[in-house]
Design goal:
AMP-dep_synth/lig_dom; Rossmann fold; eight-stranded mixed sheet; about 575 residues; about 40% helix; 2 domains; AMP-binding_CS; globular; alpha/beta; palmitoyl-CoA ligase activity
């Protein structure tokens, strides 16, 4: 912390100095010479000496502060504990004599009543027994929407927001029961598959838990998935029911004619906008009607649910072709919740609900009161303001941050850790492993190191993850059920990903790039003889090394009037490159 303070003071002083130099330069450009300016401010040789003197004084002050406060920091931060934790062994082989034996994490087995549950319906029922009167889920009420003209003439839609409305565990359990019976009344049967095409919201959670209670399966789709991907998922799962929101009904008009199995669409109504329900050849059912139907339905018993029953078919983003449906059974999700308790979207919610933690739903446009999409006259309550403060004030971040999805560069990692004054750990895992598989140890502060050929003591090879959290495979696509990342196990049991076998990379902005597809596309050009594509996962772009076709390049040069250039000159010529 002291070192950060010292860097801040020095950087701030350098910033002021640079700003002064910039002002000097602007004055020079405006007609005032440097010579005249320095005559006004003093001898130019004195300024660097003055800057050095001030910096030395600041460094001396900080050094004295370091010496005075070192004993206090030593007692408060207790570095001897961190050193002991750093030396701990994280994982060991089950059988040290067998090189094929897996590594398992070292640690005590957690104990909690919820860990005795083996299916998601039982997990939620147990949570209701333990935390019945606690707030469980809530969402901020959107009273209406208005159009406001901004100062630049742009018309911006703004929400009029009310208060958060909370449901206790008991109230939520009752609503899930009504939705489950409502789904039965509209034809959802035991073992049926219901497609979920909506943002994460209260109705999403109600439907998912209701389908689990019926012994059915939910199929989740990204809301930014293209029309072809949605059609592929609906036809592959042969789902007869779909849950979406009123905002996506217009898009569904293009999809329904190409999905013959789809019979009913259940949509969440908008309070301030009428749904476009015209022109559909399938039944449209408002979500509010499900609970009404559930109240009128007979008290029929639901089918049983086993740990090996499919709970979720989670479709990927489909960046490299048709989206793949990852099969997650109840045992997978329960297994990762248990691992999470000892140490991703459906998982995070299920874990928090199981632990009695309240969840509030919001969109990026309604999460904070200062959003430009919220009308200034909207109601503000103390709870909402306090929640916003927790997210807007960096001083209130008191815990840890775990990231995933794509790697973070070392500079960004250090920047986030310094800004929020928290421990930041990067996780590694896949949709196919129910999100998390392994994560950095907060107490491991050893050097990162490099992938070197002399690291022979560390076992290296293809990473194979085996546990209850590992998905059963891809839906109707068994040949793709493989993991092809290479890793090394260090002496302390830590896993380090050192290589990726498959011809696929995820960039910093979570975009997948299939090298073969890019290379084929570039090779189709008559100007290209050969091409090699490379991408760094910590960057946002792809690099291509190309060998041009000499004849085609010469023909292009003739069209541009550059007949007398050599092959190398043609490759270096900016006009030819742009053409």
């Amino acid at each position: 912390m002291v070192l950060q303070l010292q860097r801040f003071i020095v950087n701030r002083f350098q910033f002021v100095l640079c700003r002064r130099r910039l002002i000097t330069r602007r004055r020079s450009i405006s007609g005032v010479s440097h010579r005249h300016y320095f005559k006004q401010t003093g001898d130019r040789s004195l300024r660097p000496k003055l800057v050095d003197l001030v910096l030395q004084i600041l460094k001396s002050i900080v050094a004295v502060y370091d010496l005075v406060t070192l004993p206090i920091y030593y007692v408060c931060q207790r570095p001897w504990i961190q050193r002991r934790l750093h030396r701990d062994i994280r994982s060991v082989r089950v059988n040290p004599l067998d090189v094929h034996s897996p590594f398992i994490r070292i640690g005590s087995t957690p104990s909690h009543p919820l860990l005795e549950c083996h299916t998601l319906p039982k997990l939620f029922k147990k949570s209701v027994e333990l935390y019945g009167d606690r707030n469980c889920l809530g969402q901020r009420e959107v009273i209406g929407e208005v159009d406001e003209i901004q100062s630049d003439g742009i018309v911006l839609q703004k929400f009029i927001l009310g208060d958060y409305k909370w449901l206790t565990y008991t109230e939520l359990d009752r609503r899930i029961e009504l939705v489950a019976r409502g789904l039965m009344s509209v034809g959802v049967k035991h073992k049926a598959t219901v497609v979920m095409y909506a943002e994460t919201r209260l109705e999403w959670f109600l439907t998912a838990q209701a389908v689990f209670r019926l012994g059915g399966t939910i199929t989740t789709l990204y809301t930014n998935l293209g029309i072809d991907g949605i059609i592929h998922a609906l036809n592959e799962t042969e789902s007869t029911h779909m849950v979406t929101t009123a905002d996506f009904l217009t898009k569904m008009k293009q999809i329904v004619p190409k999905t013959p199995a789809l019979k009913r669409i259940i949509y969440v109504e908008s309070l301030y906008k009428k749904a476009d329900t015209q022109g559909f050849t399938v039944d449209l059912i408002p979500f509010s009607r499900l609970e009404e139907e559930g109240q009128l339905a007979n008290d029929k018993s639901f089918g049983g649910v086993e740990p090996t029953d499919v709970a979720v078919i989670m479709y990927t983003s489909g960046s490299t072709g048709n989206p793949k449906g990852v099969i997650l059974v109840h045992k997978n999700i329960i297994g990762i919740i248990k691992g999470f308790y000892a140490l991703a979207n459906n998982l995070v919610e299920s874990f928090f609900v199981a632990m009695g933690i309240t969840i509030g739903y919001a969109s990026p446009r309604t999460m904070t009161d200062n959003s430009r999409h919220i009308k200034a006259s909207s109601k503000r309550r103390c709870d909402v303001v306090a929640t916003n403060c927790n997210f807007s004030c960096t001083a209130d971040f008191r815990s840890n941050i775990v990231s995933g999805s794509a790697p973070i560069s070392p500079d960004t990692h250090d920047f986030i850790r310094s800004c929020f004054n928290v421990k930041l750990a990067q996780g590694y895992g896949l949709t196919e492993t129910t999100a998390g598989a392994t994560v950095m140890d907060f107490n491991d502060w050893s050097a990162e190191g490099k992938y070197l050929i002399h690291d022979k003591p560390n076992p290296r090879g293809e990473i194979v993850i085996g546990a209850d959290c590992v998905a059963a495979g891809y839906y109707k696509n068994d040949e793709l059920t493989k993991v092809r990342d290479s890793g090394a196990i260090h002496a302390d049991g830590c896993l380090k990903v050192i290589d990726r076998k498959r011809d696929l990379v995820k960039l910093q902005l979570r975009e997948y790039v299939l090298f073969a597809k890019v290379e084929v596309g570039l090779s189709n050009s008559e100007l290209v003889d050969n091409v090699f594509v490379y991408a760094n996962p910590k960057q946002t772009y792809v690099v291509a090394l190309m060998v041009p076709n000499l004849k085609a390049l010469s023909d292009l040069a003739k069209q541009l009037g550059k007949n007398n250039l050599s092959h190398k000159q043609l490759c270096d010529d900016p006009l030819v490159s742009r053409a």
